[in-house]
Amino acid sequence: MADFLVGVALFILAVTAIALFRILNSRVAAERMMAVQLLGSGGGAALLLLGAATESPATSDVALLLALFAAFSCVAFTLGANAVPAARQDSPKERP
Q: What CA dihedral angle connects 57, 58, 61 and 67, to 10 degrees?
């Protein structure tokens, strides 16, 4: 059973790597943020499978932290994207 879980984890890592290569070649910032989300979910899934295969609870903790950091980065990107247009709108009004 452990060999099967490791094989599935490697398959998920391979598919995630191919998708990351495809997304990171884009010049759009939102698509790059999608790459971070993909890394968080795909990497987390692979780490959870490897943790189950090796019976290592620390690997599961790292997988959950990876998914959590990906979610926080998405929130930070969204808040930062909303702050930039507001600053651009205020600057012309301040000029006399």
A: -110
Tokens of 72: 């926080």
For 46-83, how does the pLDDT look when each residue is reduced to its tens digit (9 = 90+)?
Answer: 999 999 999 988 998 999 898 898 888 888 888 887 76
Helix (H) or strand (E) holding 27: none
Which secondary structure element, helix H or strand E, spans residue 25, and what is its range? Answer: none
**Cβ-based neighbours of 77, under 8 Å, separated by 6 or more:** 29, 33
Structure tokens at 43: 């990497």
State how far the Cα of 45 lies from the Cα of 60, in Å rounded to an integer.
Answer: 9
3-state class of 55 per DSSP? coil
CB atoms within 10 A of CB 89: 9
- C-alpha 51/C-alpha 46 separation (Å) is 9
